[in-house]
Description:
This protein has six helices and five strands; from the N terminus they run βαβαβαβαβαα. With 171 residues, the chain is α/β, with parallel strands linked by helices.
Amino acid sequence: MRRAVCPGSFDPIHKGHIEVIARAASLFDEVIVAVSTNYAKNYRFTLNERLEMAKTTFSALSGIVVEPMGEGLLSDYCHARGVSAIVKGLRSSSDFDYELPMATMNRQLSGVETVFLPGDSRYLHLSSTLIKEVHTLGGDVADFVPRAVLRRLQGDVGPDTRPVPVVLPKL
């Protein structure tokens, strides 16, 4: 089985993410959406909320699994999960400049390759940060996020504070 991972904090997941992940699902037998936590970031949504939004969003698509990445290196996670490729969406050349050193490091650490997919032009302007800012300032982001995210942004769903089971890589 050819398995890929699309890692990210997905705070929140948006249509640019969805488009890249759906295309990756057509290239691989299984795509793991690995929801990560970067402790240097301030999150709008808890890990549980981000996982739930992603699971709801991808529930109708086959071959896509959503799980927490846990702590540690992405290369270790990929090794433990039998992942042959990391898929990253690119919006611009600056994304490529940022992602290339990480792709090279991941390949040298574990042999996992990184596949870059150019984002669809409809979504090149999207970022989770921009979506949160526009929403906070009263702008309409409905065209840019899935329903599960829009409901959370509008407060229709309360915060989920349950502990998240974390899949730790076995080395």
